[in-house]
Structure to design on (526 residues):
């Protein structure tokens, strides 16, 4: 999802600015002096004028001079000054970092807007300096659960940054134990945290304590007090918490690329952000057609694929297209910070069944609208996160890219996930809806086993795909029930006539497994 939608906050800034009688933006130095004026109306006007300056040119606001204002006795001064600080934090976390020592006081402020501004500040700084936000880690949980929708969004983002940093923490390069005061807090730490234990939060912080692992302690097998191995998320999110962000009115030059998000023979992907009138920091995943494939025919095919993608992208498990352009050819989708399917394999049978059902529903939705993927594989399945300690949400992208790659004489899918018709169309037929049945089977095989269906040298794998059956899933992972073996065996049949006739048939078979293994999950999958 796009990281933050600030339209609501922008409207509120304008409305509160009018109530504070802000008529014009003056010189910043004059505004700072006016924050200590005897006249309360002058103080309020100066504070909100400063917020306006920060919203439009945050680099003009000297954070050290905000120190007294953000803790001022005057509510309107605190509101305007903390809003200015939040704008700076979102734009330049380095400038806002020194003010973090005052944030523990601000997140407990009696004014809801001051608390909201404090949480926005924490989210901005924590992205770059997560450990500096550690003192407010515990407070963010109550704000996330009790605050407004805006507070929930920013608090969740800040919690994610802080927990990621803590989970990777070391003292002198040694493994550490992260002790927290309750299981809910433990649940937000990502898979791979060194050691997470609940019920042992340190008295100094009340919530989190970091210490060296005991001599000889096996950090890979430490378990929580409940006896369950740690994993991220306690259940599926509610449908209303799965967001599909709105389109972005941006051009390619508006994006600031942040870091690589993978590459394929067809496109290069980056996490990127852009500023708009609605979102000051709209986060996206930006896909740019590689320069060596920008012939007119490939460009036309690329945009035809995006046209089809946009027909289906209103589904909860389809990656939303937010913007597109032609110079160079590019498409920006909602931000996905949860990795790909490869990062969520063998997550446990229950979450894996929920992930699988979401993927099957997605492809069924696409087929009902006449859209075929044609290149399903783990990199095409990306994950976003929602509020609270829930499972991440799988979202399928790259719709139609397989056809573009075929037009560019590129392999449309890695060999281990190729359907027989990808490799020998003269023997097995062309690419159609049945190809997606096979592709889903191969993707779910990896989801449940942690292994590619076929492994080895690419030439050997190509031969296996057309002649051999993959190892039985339950032989690879003993937690896989026999019913999953049957589903995947039929989905991945060599001949199309032996596969499920439609994705809906695969969905029905999968739901039978869910009803058998986790009947209570059935009520939470729609």
């Amino acid at each position: 999802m796009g990281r933050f939608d600030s339209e609501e906050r922008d409207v509120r800034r304008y409305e509160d600015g009018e109530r504070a009688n802000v008529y014009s933006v003056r010189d910043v130095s004059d505004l700072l002096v006016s924050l200590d004026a005897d006249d309360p109306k002058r103080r309020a006007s100066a504070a909100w004028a400063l917020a306006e300056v920060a919203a439009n040119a945050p680099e003009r606001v000297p954070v050290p001079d905000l120190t007294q204002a953000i803790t001022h006795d005057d509510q309107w001064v605190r509101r305007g000054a903390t809003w200015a600080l939040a704008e700076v934090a979102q734009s330049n976390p380095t400038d806002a970092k020194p003010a973090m020592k005052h944030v523990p006081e601000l997140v407990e402020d009696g004014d809801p807007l001051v608390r909201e501004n404090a949480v926005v500040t924490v989210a901005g700084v924590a992205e770059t300096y997560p450990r500096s936000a550690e003192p407010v880690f515990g407070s963010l949980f109550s704000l996330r659960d009790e605050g407004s929708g805006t507070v929930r969004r920013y608090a969740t983002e800040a919690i994610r940054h802080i927990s990621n940093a803590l989970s990777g923490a070391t003292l002198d390069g040694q493994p550490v134990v992260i002790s927290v005061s309750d299981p809910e807090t433990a649940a937000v730490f990502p898979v791979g945290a060194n050691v997470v234990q609940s019920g042992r939060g340190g008295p100094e912080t009340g919530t989190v304590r970091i210490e060296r692992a005991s001599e000889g302690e096996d950090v890979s097998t430490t378990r929580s007090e409940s006896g369950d191995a740690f994993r991220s998320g306690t259940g599926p999110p509610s449908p209303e918490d799965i967001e599909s962000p709105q389109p972005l009115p941006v051009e390619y030059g508006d994006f600031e690329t942040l870091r690589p998000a993978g590459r394929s023979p067809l496109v290069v992907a980056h996490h990127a952000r852009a500023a708009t009138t609605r979102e000051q920091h709209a986060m996206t995943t930006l896909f740019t057609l590689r320069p060596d494939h920008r012939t007119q025919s490939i460009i036309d095919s690329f945009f035809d694929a995006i046209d089809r993608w946009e027909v289906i992208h209103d589904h909860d498990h389809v990656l939303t297209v937010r913007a597109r352009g032609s110079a160079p050819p590019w498409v920006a989708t909602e931000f996905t910070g949860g990795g790909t399917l490869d990062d969520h394999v063998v997550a446990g049978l229950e979450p894996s069944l929920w992930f699988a059902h979401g993927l099957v529903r997605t492809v069924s939705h696409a087929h009902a609208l006449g859209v075929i993927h044609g290149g399903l594989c783990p990199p095409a399945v990306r994950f976003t996160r929602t509020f609270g300690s829930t499972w991440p949400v799988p979202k399928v992208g790259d719709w139609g890219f397989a056809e573009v790659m075929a037009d560019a004489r590129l392999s449309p899918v890695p060999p281990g996930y190729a359907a027989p018709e990808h490799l020998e169309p003269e023997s097995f037929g062309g690419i159609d809806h049945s190809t997606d049945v096979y592709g889903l089977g191969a993707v779910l095989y990896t989801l449940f086993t942690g292994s590619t269906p076929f492994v080895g040298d690419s030439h050997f794998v190509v031969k296996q795909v057309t002649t051999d059956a993959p190892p039985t899933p339950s032989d690879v992972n003993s937690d896989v029930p026999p019913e999953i073996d049957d589903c995947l065996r039929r989905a991945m049949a060599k001949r199309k006539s032996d596969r499920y006739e439609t994705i809906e048939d695969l969905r029905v078979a999968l739901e039978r497994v869910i009803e058998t293994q986790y009947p209570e999950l059935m009520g939470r999958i729609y």
The chain has three domains: 7-166, 168-232, 341-524. The radius of gyration is 26 Å. Residues 54 and 60 are 7 Å apart (CA to CA). The longest strand covers residues 256-263.
